[in-house]
Design a protein that fits this description.
Layout: E1 4-9, H1 14-26, E2 33-37, H2 40-49, E3 58-60, H3 66-74, E4 76-81, H4 86-89, H5 91-100, E5 103-106, H6 111-128, E6 131-133, H7 141-158, E7 164-173, H8 178-193, H9 195-202, E8 223-225, E9 230-234, H10 238-251, E10 261-269, H11 271-292, H12 295-302, H13 314-319, E11 321-330, E12 333-342, H14 348-362, E13 369-371, H15 373-376, H16 378-387, E14 391-394
Parallel strand pairs: 1-2, 1-4, 2-3, 4-5, 5-6, 6-13, 7-10
Antiparallel strand pairs: 7-11, 8-9, 9-10, 11-12, 12-14
GO biological process, one term: glycolipid biosynthetic process
Protein name: Saccharopine dehydrogenase
Length: about 400
């Protein structure tokens, strides 16, 4: 019998501390959870900062100590990890959870690393019963569950699923933490040195090995979209989220069809102002990618960006928000829905999503594998997130 329902790993980090704070405020009193990290004193200090009772147990575990990872996994039903970059620090923990048949969730957006975990562990996780669920934060819960939500609504109205869904980020206010920056720069470093990583990153179905569909490579330019009558720009996390949604379709036996198409963009407005904004965002993303892809300029760039452990202030987190528009179509039939929430999407909102995902895993059963939020928790997680304040609404 396990000792805990959930272990939050990485509590002394920026994101981990926010998840621990959420657990202190909102976790059911009868849910047994513990905090973990490699430095006990730092973990206890973080718990004190968020008002955790001294009775919250602390587990010492280090990503470089395989024995400690297995010991932590054996002690719980679910490991919730905030320790990134995951390509650098996360592989041993996933392996330990798979070996022990323990569920796992994280907030990674590192597509190349997720593909490694799929290749190494999906079949073994199916055998052990471990549900390994990546991308349980702003990337990619709104995308993955938003698509699931609008598809179910479309079927209720029209009697079939939509063959095409488009995600449009209408508005978002938030900041970056040093952990996110470190993950992005680590990804660019690996991509610059490894041709296979570059191949995975540009493949629209890279998280669905062997799958094919109508979607092509990510579009990086400004475009006018007749569906919404506005100019659009690439969405920074679209290259992650789209692959997660396509994997959900793949894992769910192509429930939305083998020709299902999914894409993500940012809305920038109508007319000349919208066109200029879309062009500026597109150029900025291309420029950042170019600078980050080259070693010397990447190192220079890192000096001006937040360091690990740094991030938005509590006031900035509280003032953040986001809203996403979904447009589902099949033939002449169309349905729109929105997903929205309060707090900084990458941090306050992500802490909510990740903590609620961990609690959903702890309180439910399911088949093992390297899964997605939609394919592992689906409607149950949507209902839980709605109860926690997220908006899923048919328009």
């Amino acid at each position: 019998m396990t000792e805990f329902d959930i272990v939050i790993y990485g509590v002394s980090g920026f994101a981990g501390k926010l998840v621990a704070e959420y657990m202190v405020r909102y976790a059911p009193k009868d849910l047994a959870w513990a905090a973990a990290g490699r430095d006990e004193a730092k973990v206890r200090a973080a718990l004190d900062d968020v008002g955790a009772a001294s009775s919250v147990p602390v587990i010492v575990a280090d990503s470089n100590d395989v024995e400690s990872l297995h010991k932590m996994a054996k002690a719980t039903r679910v490991v919730c990890s905030t320790v990134g970059p995951y390509a650098r620090y996360g592989s041993g923990l996933v392996a330990a959870c798979v070996d022990e048949g323990v569920d796992y969730c994280d907030l990674t957006g590192e597509v190349h690393w997720m593909r490694r975990m799929i290749d190494r562990h999906h079949e073994r996780a199916e055998e052990s019963g471990a549900r390994i669920v990546h991308t349980c934060g702003f990337d990619s819960i709104p995308s993955d569950l938003g698509n699931l939500f609008v598809q179910d609504a479309f079927k209720r109205k029209f009697g079939r699923y939509a063959s095409e869904v488009r995600f449009y980020l209408k508005v978002a206010k938030g900041g970056f933490s040093g952990g996110t920056v470190a993950s992005m720069l680590n990804l660019m470093e690996e991509a610059s040195e490894n041709k296979e990583v570059r191949r995975i990153l540009v493949n629209p179905y890279s998280l669905s090995p062997g799958d094919k569909g109508p979607d092509g490579r990510d579009r990086m330019g400004a475009e006018h979209d007749a569906r919404v009558g506005q100019w659009t720009a690439p969405f920074l996390m679209g290259s992650v989220n789209t692959r997660v949604v396509r994997r959900s379709n793949f894992l769910m036996d192509h429930v939305w069809g083998e020709n299902f198409s999914y894409d993500e963009r940012m809305l920038t407005g109508k007319g000349p102002k919208g066109a200029i904004a879309a062009g500026s965002i597109s150029a900025g993303m291309v420029g950042f990618t170019g600078v980050a892809a080259i070693g010397p300029t990447r190192n220079l760039l890192s000096k001006f960006l937040p360091k690990p452990g740094e991030g938005p202030t509590p006031e900035q987190i509280e003032k953040g928000f986001y809203e996403v528009l979904f447009v589902a179509k099949d033939g002449d039939d169309e349905l729109q829905a929105k997903v929205a929430g309060k707090k900084d999407p990458g941090y306050g909102a992500t802490a909510l999503m990740l903590a609620e995902s961990a609690m959903e895993l702890a309180q439910t059963e399911g088949n093992g594998g390297v899964l997605t939020p939609a394919s592992s928790m689906g409607e149950g997680l949507i209902q839980r997130l709605q109860s926690a304040g997220m908006v899923f609404e048919v328009l």
